[in-house]
């Protein structure tokens, strides 16, 4: 059918904003300076309508005369020296297409059968072919999902004949053939492949592709957590599986507020008024490494669905994001083959989180970004979500025989096939080519309307059980739900984005924005009505049975049949060996600073210390009208707080607190100490803001290199740290996730281990959000108190040691038993109303914390370093669990903190300087403005000013 | 005439795919004496709900239909195509219409603002000059005019949060002059120091002409604004409630004025 093309651009006498910033980026990041101008246009392709209809739509829908021009079937950027159009590849869902069709229909044009939109870039000036290539590859085209349009497509409709079901002659495969089958697709070990072969030998038949794929999904590291469930042999000594140890520590803590731990799509704690809070944190490293925008979006979308899939469905009330990247100024030649530049990755991941969270209407209000060169092969992208649900609707639900198996939300396409298995594999230089189908572009609005419909359905008690179709798609959702009963699925009934999918593809596709439901038949009609009202597609694709089997049909053909017993319990149990790795102990002490100003500025502008405000400003952190402590505040709105506090129930003063901690640098040096640090940092952030340490829950995310013996040892130590932390503090882990594929294999076979990350998130409840504390100094003449235990020579892993090239075996050692005493004491102090401001010490040390408090308060500070302490260590030590507290007067310090380690640091001043003395000598006196400028500079350079 | 002490004005909080500030907007109206109902546009299209049963229509913030094509565009087309008569009657009956953020974009793109001419687009909200989404608190100077929603607030500088990527108010010079002349500008982004209208980023977060953050129609009964008054209806909503005394949360008077006006006039019911 004919395609009409409508092109729209900003009227030439107005500034083309998109073009302006793109040009700036070309100049700043690619250093291409021959381009004198850049104009952009949007291209709409509309299939099945006439030229006149296209003209009508251009006028009424696509272009606005007030500020735009349009053309129909004609170029619009006519005089450019070079014109390039970039579009999504066929099969990559363009979320805008559906809106174009809908709006055209609303305007009376119903003949349109397909639509697409893309962007055209007109370059002016001197542009070489090399320049063009660089601009396209680095800024405009991600070949995984996008392409340069060289000719007008003949049709926008994706055609295809559905593939059939293949029989895989697995019974006759030798080990080499099994491994070949597994490689690049299934990511299963030989032992696992052998178990599958034996299963089918016993059945006396070969397997279908559906069956093999189902097993590969369910048994993937991503879904099956094989390493965490394995027995660990540490130096030959058997230890309990990691997962079991974490769960047992939670059970032993017996925290009265825990409602559901490690059993549902998220962890759940009691809130107030019969409500419950839930939390889940996920990683999305592998997809984000190859398509950062789509990968981050689907990461957010997935973790939101984990909340939506908790109990009979929770409402998402907050979102968090924690990233680890290589430095954005990494030289191009250091980017490993097959990997994307961190500058591009960082910005596109932020864009993805922004576009998904903002459109879903979920405040993204807590997060952090960490940098280390060794993330150059693969970033760590961690996204969290928190939700609210009536306590009575929480807790894991199971389908009942006779319930309908229902798919809700988006349609199924070929996108996202093999995401779960892919996420479980190592990244190699081939990853981008082989696994490009594993990524897709998220459609936040699809998920938002599904969420609206599901919350209504939950209120009307229509849902028996619900789960996310995340990794593994229908296979993992229905395979898991039907574990106790059995389930029969008719794959041909699943609504598809386009024809041409083989049955196994329908079954394992990870197309986003879908969930699986178990619905009692008598509720189906009402559920359908609710979905209709919300423009949500809902389809019965099977039923829960009493056979104890997974049965897959395509039309009338049985294309897969596995016992639930084998599917869920047939996975050979692993034994993981752990052997400590020698870590050469270096000791390079830095020279005592001669130029204090230089040292302070270097620390403040260290990437792990600097302000991340430009990122936060792009996230809607105020939507839902719940904010009680925002990520940034203070006099000029640019000083960071430690945690976020929201009051999610309108009209109620009780609230939820959310915080997190991670330190990949320390984790790489000392996995145990780094893990304690991460947990301490998380809860210190929460308690500094006014949380009660006895009402906090923890979530773990282990992002680790592939567990060879050395990494397994480190992982074991990290889990030991978590367990010890729980034992000492009583704060339980109630949810967690592991991703053990932070390893990169280069074409030459060399291996790069990405720094291990343990991200600890914490959340809790607060009876009254008006009894909480921000970090900004409130007045001049206040007393500044340092609270908490630290040994300042424990400098290893600090930003200061990084900039001075120093090294030391002495990492910050935190005693969790002493920590909990300090935290309880600080909580009481915060509740007393006497604490004017409180900030925890983390990256950048005491000086950075002090500077941030001054920035928020628009004041200065005068402090004294105790005699005998090495002043640079005192100022830059990064031991977590220590706090700066602002009080009215000295007597309050004794009264509030007599039971814990504390010292008087100094006072706030009207002069906007930080002045530091020791032994009555001035060490330095630096204008706070200089520190702020340094602190704000790095991210402003990446994202622009704010 | 209704007894205003007994009957709460009914507020239609219009929802569709991608609406996401509906619940807090409903709460703001309820807190100030209204009775909010969340109404999906499909319910209006099907006739299950009628605009005439309400005294106030609020189009809340969000990303209606993903803000595809232009922000608020697809919903504007839908309203102008299917609810044209209902909307026109609603406004003609002297009832109130409030568009916040995405809702403002919708009101402009339906033509209800600035001139109340459904189907005729006279102004627009363009991409921010910064080139990206901005979420930050802004100072707003409230202008003196006949806007029902801001009675008693004129001359004050208040603080609301903005959160948008396309909020630059733009129109041709003639229209802009006309809007100014007829006193339809309600809010302007103001400098933190002088309290006067400003073009400086980030106090003016998007580069709006004449620092315009919100306008009303000539009757003063249809208001659209980019900032979010519903995000400041509790003291603790403000980022700096711990360091400054701000008095009553600045969003409350806007909603209270609307509810009080609707209760007094009892228009159409």
Automatic annotation (TrEMBL), chain A:
InterPro entries xrefs: PRibForGlyAmidine_synth_PurL (IPR010074), PurL_linker (IPR041609), PurM-like_C_dom (IPR010918), PurM-like_C_sf (IPR036676), PurM-like_N (IPR016188), PurM-like_N_sf (IPR036921), PurS-like_sf (IPR036604)
Gene Ontology MF terms: ATP binding; magnesium ion binding; phosphoribosylformylglycinamidine synthase activity
Residues of the PurM-like C-terminal domain: 402-554, 780-917
Residues annotated for Mg(2+) 2 binding in this entry: 306, 468
Main location, first listed in the record: cytoplasm
Subcellular compartments: Cytoplasm
Domain Phosphoribosylformylglycinamidine synthase linker: 183-226
GO cellular component, one term: cytoplasm
Binding residues annotated for ATP, in chain numbering: 280, 700, 736
Positions of substrate binding: 305, 440, 510-512, 739
Family annotation (Pfam families): AIRS (PF00586), AIRS_C (PF02769), FGAR-AT_linker (PF18072)
Chain ranges of the PurM-like N-terminal domain: 264-389, 662-740
Residues given in the record as Mg(2+) 1 binding sites: 282
Gene Ontology biological process: 'de novo' IMP biosynthetic process
Pathway stated in the Swiss-Prot or TrEMBL entry: Purine metabolism; IMP biosynthesis via de novo pathway; 5-amino-1-(5-phospho-D-ribosyl)imidazole from N(2)-formyl-N(1)-(5-phospho-D-ribosyl)glycinamide: step 1/2
Keyword list, A-Z: ATP-binding, Cytoplasm, Ligase, Magnesium, Metal-binding, Nucleotide-binding, Purine biosynthesis
Annotated catalysed reactions: N(2)-formyl-N(1)-(5-phospho-beta-D-ribosyl)glycinamide + L-glutamine + ATP + H2O = 2-formamido-N(1)-(5-O-phospho-beta-D-ribosyl)acetamidine + L-glutamate + ADP + phosphate + H(+)
E.C. number: 6.3.5.3
Catalytic machinery residues: 222, 284 (proton acceptor)
Subunit architecture: Monomer. Part of the FGAM synthase complex composed of 1 PurL, 1 PurQ and 2 PurS subunits.
Family: Belongs to the FGAMS family.
Biological role: Part of the phosphoribosylformylglycinamidine synthase complex involved in the purines biosynthetic pathway. Catalyzes the ATP-dependent conversion of formylglycinamide ribonucleotide (FGAR) and glutamine to yield formylglycinamidine ribonucleotide (FGAM) and glutamate. The FGAM synthase complex is composed of three subunits. PurQ produces an ammonia molecule by converting glutamine to glutamate. PurL transfers the ammonia molecule to FGAR to form FGAM in an ATP-dependent manner.
PANTHER family, per the entry: PHOSPHORIBOSYLFORMYLGLYCINAMIDINE SYNTHASE SUBUNIT PURL
Name this polypeptide is given: Phosphoribosylformylglycinamidine synthase subunit PurL
Organism of origin: Sporotomaculum syntrophicum
From TrEMBL, chain B:
GO cellular component terms given for this protein: cytoplasm
Protein's cellular compartments: Cytoplasm
Record function comment: Part of the phosphoribosylformylglycinamidine synthase complex involved in the purines biosynthetic pathway. Catalyzes the ATP-dependent conversion of formylglycinamide ribonucleotide (FGAR) and glutamine to yield formylglycinamidine ribonucleotide (FGAM) and glutamate. The FGAM synthase complex is composed of three subunits. PurQ produces an ammonia molecule by converting glutamine to glutamate. PurL transfers the ammonia molecule to FGAR to form FGAM in an ATP-dependent manner.
Gene name in the database record: purQ
CDD domains: GATase1_FGAR_AT
Subunit record text: Part of the FGAM synthase complex composed of 1 PurL, 1 PurQ and 2 PurS subunits.
EC number: 6.3.5.3, 3.5.1.2
SMART domains cross-referenced by the UniProt entry: GATase_5 (SM01211)
Main location: cytoplasm
InterPro entries: Class_I_gatase-like (IPR029062), PRibForGlyAmidine_synth_PurQ (IPR010075)
Pathway: Purine metabolism; IMP biosynthesis via de novo pathway; 5-amino-1-(5-phospho-D-ribosyl)imidazole from N(2)-formyl-N(1)-(5-phospho-D-ribosyl)glycinamide: step 1/2
Domain of life: Bacteria
Name the record gives this protein: Phosphoribosylformylglycinamidine synthase subunit PurQ
Catalyzed chemical reaction(s): N(2)-formyl-N(1)-(5-phospho-beta-D-ribosyl)glycinamide + L-glutamine + ATP + H2O = 2-formamido-N(1)-(5-O-phospho-beta-D-ribosyl)acetamidine + L-glutamate + ADP + phosphate + H(+); L-glutamine + H2O = L-glutamate + NH4(+)
Organism whose genome encodes this protein: Sporotomaculum syntrophicum
Entry GO MF terms: ATP binding; glutaminase activity; phosphoribosylformylglycinamidine synthase activity
Active site positions, chain numbering: 101 (nucleophile), 228, 230
Keywords, comma-separated and alphabetical: ATP-binding, Cytoplasm, Glutamine amidotransferase, Hydrolase, Ligase, Nucleotide-binding, Purine biosynthesis
GO biological process assignments: 'de novo' IMP biosynthetic process
NCBIfam families to which the protein is assigned, alphabetical: FGAM_synth_I
